[in-house]
Amino acid sequence: MLAFTFVVDAQQAPPLSPPSPPSGPPRVPDTVTSVFRSRSVREDSELSIAVGPKANIKLCVGEASVKVNGWARSEVRVFVRGGMKFQFRVLERDKSSDLPSWVWVTRSDNTTGNECISADEIEMDVPTDSVLTIDGRSTNVVIDSVARTEVKIVEGNILMRNITGGVRATTYQGNLLLENSGGTVSLESTTGHIAAVGVESGQVGDVFRAKTASGGISIREVSYRQLQVNSISGSLTYDGKLLPGGVYSFKTSNGSILMTLPEDISARFNASYGFGSFQTAFPISVTQKTDMPGSRTFVGTCGEGEANVTLQTVRGSIGLAKKE
Whole-model pTM? Predict the structure, then answer.
Protein backbone atom coordinates (compact mmCIF):
# COMPACT_ATOMS: atom_id res chain seq x y z
CA MET A 1 0.00 0.00 0.00
CA LEU A 2 1.20 3.50 -0.79
CA ALA A 3 1.14 5.95 2.11
CA PHE A 4 0.21 9.40 0.89
CA THR A 5 1.03 12.31 3.16
CA PHE A 6 -0.87 14.98 1.27
CA VAL A 7 -4.39 14.66 -0.08
CA VAL A 8 -6.52 17.10 -2.01
CA ASP A 9 -10.09 15.85 -1.81
CA ALA A 10 -12.41 16.26 -4.72
CA GLN A 11 -16.03 15.60 -5.42
CA GLN A 12 -16.53 11.99 -6.40
CA ALA A 13 -18.63 11.19 -9.41
CA PRO A 14 -20.04 7.82 -10.46
CA PRO A 15 -17.36 5.84 -12.28
CA LEU A 16 -17.52 5.97 -16.04
CA SER A 17 -16.78 2.72 -17.79
CA PRO A 18 -14.48 3.06 -20.79
CA PRO A 19 -15.97 2.21 -24.17
CA SER A 20 -15.61 -1.39 -25.20
CA PRO A 21 -13.07 -1.96 -27.96
CA PRO A 22 -14.29 -3.30 -31.30
CA SER A 23 -15.09 -7.00 -31.16
CA GLY A 24 -13.28 -7.72 -34.40
CA PRO A 25 -10.68 -6.31 -36.78
CA PRO A 26 -11.51 -3.31 -38.96
CA ARG A 27 -13.57 -4.26 -41.98
CA VAL A 28 -11.64 -4.26 -45.22
CA PRO A 29 -13.41 -4.27 -48.60
CA ASP A 30 -13.50 -7.71 -50.23
CA THR A 31 -11.63 -6.49 -53.28
CA VAL A 32 -8.72 -5.28 -51.16
CA THR A 33 -8.74 -8.41 -48.98
CA SER A 34 -8.62 -10.68 -52.02
CA VAL A 35 -5.52 -8.90 -53.30
CA PHE A 36 -3.69 -9.34 -49.99
CA ARG A 37 -4.81 -12.93 -49.45
CA SER A 38 -4.21 -14.23 -52.93
CA ARG A 39 -1.16 -16.45 -52.97
CA SER A 40 -0.49 -17.70 -56.45
CA VAL A 41 2.24 -20.01 -55.13
CA ARG A 42 2.28 -21.42 -51.60
CA GLU A 43 5.81 -22.61 -50.95
CA ASP A 44 8.97 -22.02 -48.95
CA SER A 45 11.60 -19.78 -50.49
CA GLU A 46 14.84 -18.10 -49.39
CA LEU A 47 17.08 -15.42 -50.87
CA SER A 48 20.05 -13.39 -49.65
CA ILE A 49 21.87 -10.29 -50.91
CA ALA A 50 25.03 -8.46 -49.85
CA VAL A 51 24.44 -4.82 -48.88
CA GLY A 52 26.49 -1.75 -48.07
CA PRO A 53 26.78 -0.02 -44.69
CA LYS A 54 23.66 1.48 -43.11
CA ALA A 55 21.42 -0.04 -45.74
CA ASN A 56 17.70 0.75 -45.95
CA ILE A 57 15.51 -2.36 -46.09
CA LYS A 58 11.81 -2.11 -46.95
CA LEU A 59 9.12 -4.80 -46.73
CA CYS A 60 5.36 -4.74 -47.38
CA VAL A 61 3.28 -7.52 -45.81
CA GLY A 62 -0.24 -8.58 -46.68
CA GLU A 63 -0.70 -11.38 -44.17
CA ALA A 64 2.12 -13.11 -42.30
CA SER A 65 3.90 -13.24 -38.98
CA VAL A 66 7.18 -11.35 -39.31
CA LYS A 67 10.39 -11.80 -37.33
CA VAL A 68 13.47 -9.65 -37.99
CA ASN A 69 16.82 -10.23 -36.33
CA GLY A 70 19.94 -8.10 -36.61
CA TRP A 71 23.25 -9.84 -37.24
CA ALA A 72 26.90 -8.90 -37.82
CA ARG A 73 26.99 -9.79 -41.53
CA SER A 74 26.71 -7.21 -44.34
CA GLU A 75 23.96 -9.28 -45.86
CA VAL A 76 20.18 -9.48 -45.93
CA ARG A 77 18.62 -12.94 -45.76
CA VAL A 78 14.87 -13.49 -46.17
CA PHE A 79 13.03 -16.76 -45.66
CA VAL A 80 9.34 -17.05 -46.59
CA ARG A 81 7.43 -20.04 -45.30
CA GLY A 82 4.16 -21.05 -46.92
CA GLY A 83 3.80 -18.01 -49.13
CA MET A 84 4.47 -16.44 -52.48
CA LYS A 85 7.76 -16.05 -54.32
CA PHE A 86 9.63 -12.82 -53.72
CA GLN A 87 12.60 -10.86 -55.04
CA PHE A 88 15.04 -8.13 -54.02
CA ARG A 89 14.61 -4.86 -55.88
CA VAL A 90 17.68 -2.61 -55.60
CA LEU A 91 16.75 1.06 -55.70
CA GLU A 92 20.09 2.62 -54.82
CA ARG A 93 23.74 1.63 -54.43
CA ASP A 94 26.48 2.83 -52.10
CA LYS A 95 28.81 5.19 -53.97
CA SER A 96 31.96 3.79 -52.37
CA SER A 97 31.35 0.03 -52.48
CA ASP A 98 28.70 -0.15 -55.24
CA LEU A 99 26.77 -2.50 -52.94
CA PRO A 100 23.00 -2.02 -52.56
CA SER A 101 22.13 0.64 -49.99
CA TRP A 102 18.35 0.68 -50.54
CA VAL A 103 16.59 -2.64 -51.05
CA TRP A 104 12.90 -3.51 -51.33
CA VAL A 105 11.71 -7.04 -50.58
CA THR A 106 8.77 -7.49 -52.96
CA ARG A 107 6.65 -10.26 -54.47
CA SER A 108 7.88 -11.62 -57.77
CA ASP A 109 4.52 -11.60 -59.59
CA ASN A 110 3.75 -7.92 -59.07
CA THR A 111 1.99 -7.39 -62.38
CA THR A 112 -0.96 -5.90 -60.48
CA GLY A 113 1.29 -3.30 -58.89
CA ASN A 114 0.92 -4.90 -55.44
CA GLU A 115 4.33 -5.23 -53.72
CA CYS A 116 3.07 -6.92 -50.54
CA ILE A 117 4.01 -10.47 -49.61
CA SER A 118 1.52 -12.86 -47.97
CA ALA A 119 2.72 -16.02 -46.25
CA ASP A 120 2.52 -18.05 -43.07
CA GLU A 121 5.83 -16.68 -41.78
CA ILE A 122 8.53 -14.27 -42.93
CA GLU A 123 11.94 -14.38 -41.27
CA MET A 124 14.63 -11.78 -41.98
CA ASP A 125 18.25 -11.38 -40.93
CA VAL A 126 19.57 -7.87 -41.54
CA PRO A 127 22.75 -5.97 -40.58
CA THR A 128 22.58 -4.38 -37.13
CA ASP A 129 23.35 -0.95 -38.63
CA SER A 130 20.46 -1.09 -41.12
CA VAL A 131 17.25 0.96 -41.24
CA LEU A 132 14.10 -1.15 -41.50
CA THR A 133 10.69 -0.10 -42.85
CA ILE A 134 7.67 -2.41 -42.68
CA ASP A 135 4.15 -1.69 -43.95
CA GLY A 136 1.42 -4.27 -43.54
CA ARG A 137 -2.23 -5.16 -43.17
CA SER A 138 -2.57 -8.17 -40.86
CA THR A 139 0.64 -9.22 -39.13
CA ASN A 140 2.36 -9.66 -35.79
CA VAL A 141 5.85 -8.14 -35.98
CA VAL A 142 8.95 -8.85 -33.86
CA ILE A 143 12.09 -6.77 -34.50
CA ASP A 144 15.37 -7.23 -32.63
CA SER A 145 18.69 -5.37 -32.92
CA VAL A 146 18.60 -2.89 -35.82
CA ALA A 147 19.68 0.75 -35.97
CA ARG A 148 16.29 2.31 -36.69
CA THR A 149 12.85 1.12 -37.64
CA GLU A 150 9.48 2.37 -38.88
CA VAL A 151 6.49 0.02 -38.75
CA LYS A 152 2.91 0.73 -39.79
CA ILE A 153 0.26 -2.00 -39.83
CA VAL A 154 -3.54 -2.16 -39.82
CA GLU A 155 -3.98 -4.95 -37.27
CA GLY A 156 -1.55 -6.92 -35.15
CA ASN A 157 0.94 -6.55 -32.31
CA ILE A 158 4.41 -5.01 -32.61
CA LEU A 159 7.32 -6.03 -30.36
CA MET A 160 10.63 -4.18 -30.72
CA ARG A 161 13.84 -4.47 -28.73
CA ASN A 162 17.41 -3.24 -29.00
CA ILE A 163 16.63 -0.49 -31.53
CA THR A 164 19.39 2.05 -30.98
CA GLY A 165 18.61 4.92 -33.37
CA GLY A 166 14.90 5.62 -33.07
CA VAL A 167 11.48 4.00 -33.48
CA ARG A 168 8.25 4.98 -35.18
CA ALA A 169 5.53 2.33 -34.84
CA THR A 170 1.79 2.45 -35.54
CA THR A 171 -0.88 -0.23 -35.31
CA TYR A 172 -4.56 0.57 -35.68
CA GLN A 173 -5.64 -2.50 -33.72
CA GLY A 174 -3.01 -4.13 -31.54
CA ASN A 175 -0.51 -3.71 -28.73
CA LEU A 176 2.95 -2.13 -28.81
CA LEU A 177 5.96 -3.10 -26.69
CA LEU A 178 9.38 -1.43 -26.85
CA GLU A 179 12.39 -2.64 -24.82
CA ASN A 180 16.01 -1.57 -24.35
CA SER A 181 16.05 0.98 -27.15
CA GLY A 182 16.89 4.62 -27.78
CA GLY A 183 16.57 7.69 -29.97
CA THR A 184 13.40 9.56 -30.88
CA VAL A 185 10.38 7.33 -30.23
CA SER A 186 6.79 7.51 -31.50
CA LEU A 187 4.36 4.73 -30.52
CA GLU A 188 0.70 4.88 -31.57
CA SER A 189 -2.26 2.52 -31.42
CA THR A 190 -5.95 3.14 -32.01
CA THR A 191 -7.19 0.16 -29.98
CA GLY A 192 -4.47 -1.41 -27.87
CA HIS A 193 -2.07 -1.05 -24.97
CA ILE A 194 1.42 0.46 -25.11
CA ALA A 195 4.40 -0.42 -22.91
CA ALA A 196 8.00 0.84 -22.95
CA VAL A 197 10.80 -0.42 -20.71
CA GLY A 198 14.45 0.60 -20.63
CA VAL A 199 14.36 3.30 -23.33
CA GLU A 200 16.55 6.42 -23.34
CA SER A 201 17.36 9.36 -25.58
CA GLY A 202 20.43 9.07 -27.74
CA GLN A 203 21.10 12.77 -28.19
CA VAL A 204 19.84 16.18 -27.16
CA GLY A 205 16.39 16.91 -28.56
CA ASP A 206 15.12 13.32 -28.73
CA VAL A 207 11.41 13.08 -27.90
CA PHE A 208 9.40 10.14 -26.55
CA ARG A 209 5.72 10.02 -27.62
CA ALA A 210 3.11 7.37 -26.87
CA LYS A 211 -0.55 7.69 -27.88
CA THR A 212 -3.57 5.39 -27.91
CA ALA A 213 -7.28 6.02 -28.29
CA SER A 214 -8.49 3.04 -26.24
CA GLY A 215 -5.92 1.38 -24.01
CA GLY A 216 -3.50 1.88 -21.16
CA ILE A 217 0.09 3.11 -21.39
CA SER A 218 2.88 1.93 -19.10
CA ILE A 219 6.32 3.60 -19.09
CA ARG A 220 9.17 2.25 -16.95
CA GLU A 221 12.88 3.05 -16.76
CA VAL A 222 12.64 5.59 -19.55
CA SER A 223 15.05 8.52 -19.61
CA TYR A 224 14.01 11.54 -21.72
CA ARG A 225 13.76 15.26 -21.20
CA GLN A 226 10.78 15.51 -23.54
CA LEU A 227 8.01 12.98 -22.98
CA GLN A 228 4.38 13.04 -24.13
CA VAL A 229 1.91 10.31 -23.14
CA ASN A 230 -1.76 10.46 -24.20
CA SER A 231 -4.80 8.19 -24.06
CA ILE A 232 -8.46 8.97 -24.67
CA SER A 233 -9.73 6.05 -22.61
CA GLY A 234 -7.08 4.34 -20.51
CA SER A 235 -4.87 4.71 -17.45
CA LEU A 236 -1.27 5.97 -17.55
CA THR A 237 1.61 4.77 -15.36
CA TYR A 238 5.16 6.10 -15.18
CA ASP A 239 8.01 4.65 -13.13
CA GLY A 240 11.24 6.57 -13.63
CA LYS A 241 13.20 9.78 -13.13
CA LEU A 242 12.45 13.40 -13.86
CA LEU A 243 15.50 14.98 -15.46
CA PRO A 244 16.41 18.65 -14.78
CA GLY A 245 14.95 20.84 -17.52
CA GLY A 246 12.64 18.04 -18.63
CA VAL A 247 9.10 18.61 -19.92
CA TYR A 248 6.68 15.75 -19.18
CA SER A 249 3.03 15.54 -20.21
CA PHE A 250 0.51 12.83 -19.24
CA LYS A 251 -3.07 13.28 -20.45
CA THR A 252 -6.11 10.99 -20.51
CA SER A 253 -9.83 11.73 -20.75
CA ASN A 254 -11.04 8.64 -18.90
CA GLY A 255 -8.46 6.98 -16.66
CA SER A 256 -6.11 7.40 -13.74
CA ILE A 257 -2.50 8.64 -13.73
CA LEU A 258 0.12 7.20 -11.39
CA MET A 259 3.74 8.36 -11.27
CA THR A 260 6.27 6.42 -9.18
CA LEU A 261 9.31 8.64 -8.64
CA PRO A 262 12.58 8.66 -6.64
CA GLU A 263 12.61 10.52 -3.34
CA ASP A 264 14.92 13.34 -4.49
CA ILE A 265 12.72 14.75 -7.28
CA SER A 266 12.80 18.43 -8.22
CA ALA A 267 9.76 19.38 -10.27
CA ARG A 268 6.87 21.73 -10.80
CA PHE A 269 3.52 19.94 -11.12
CA ASN A 270 0.47 21.24 -12.95
CA ALA A 271 -2.44 18.87 -12.33
CA SER A 272 -5.98 19.02 -13.68
CA TYR A 273 -8.71 16.55 -12.74
CA GLY A 274 -12.41 16.95 -13.33
CA PHE A 275 -13.76 14.14 -11.16
CA GLY A 276 -11.39 12.30 -8.85
CA SER A 277 -8.56 13.28 -6.53
CA PHE A 278 -4.93 14.33 -6.40
CA GLN A 279 -2.72 12.39 -3.95
CA THR A 280 0.98 12.77 -3.35
CA ALA A 281 3.61 11.18 -1.12
CA PHE A 282 5.95 14.16 -1.67
CA PRO A 283 6.05 17.51 0.16
CA ILE A 284 4.67 19.96 -2.38
CA SER A 285 4.50 23.71 -1.96
CA VAL A 286 1.15 24.85 -3.34
CA THR A 287 1.28 27.95 -5.55
CA GLN A 288 -2.15 27.79 -7.18
CA LYS A 289 -5.37 25.89 -6.65
CA THR A 290 -8.89 26.03 -8.06
CA ASP A 291 -11.82 23.98 -6.81
CA MET A 292 -14.91 24.00 -8.99
CA PRO A 293 -17.31 21.14 -9.74
CA GLY A 294 -15.93 19.20 -12.68
CA SER A 295 -12.84 21.41 -12.94
CA ARG A 296 -10.08 21.21 -10.35
CA THR A 297 -6.48 22.27 -10.78
CA PHE A 298 -3.44 22.06 -8.60
CA VAL A 299 -0.08 23.73 -9.17
CA GLY A 300 2.82 23.09 -6.84
CA THR A 301 6.57 22.69 -6.57
CA CYS A 302 8.70 19.97 -5.05
CA GLY A 303 12.37 20.81 -4.43
CA GLU A 304 13.73 23.42 -6.83
CA GLY A 305 11.15 22.71 -9.52
CA GLU A 306 13.72 21.86 -12.20
CA ALA A 307 11.38 19.69 -14.30
CA ASN A 308 7.91 20.61 -15.57
CA VAL A 309 5.18 17.97 -15.28
CA THR A 310 1.63 18.28 -16.66
CA LEU A 311 -0.96 15.78 -15.42
CA GLN A 312 -4.47 15.90 -16.84
CA THR A 313 -7.51 13.63 -16.59
CA VAL A 314 -11.24 14.32 -16.87
CA ARG A 315 -12.47 11.24 -15.00
CA GLY A 316 -9.84 9.59 -12.84
CA SER A 317 -7.41 10.10 -9.99
CA ILE A 318 -3.84 11.39 -10.05
CA GLY A 319 -1.19 9.97 -7.72
CA LEU A 320 2.49 10.61 -7.00
CA ALA A 321 4.16 7.73 -5.20
CA LYS A 322 7.68 7.27 -3.88
CA LYS A 323 9.85 4.60 -5.44
CA GLU A 324 10.86 1.96 -2.88
Answer: 0.85
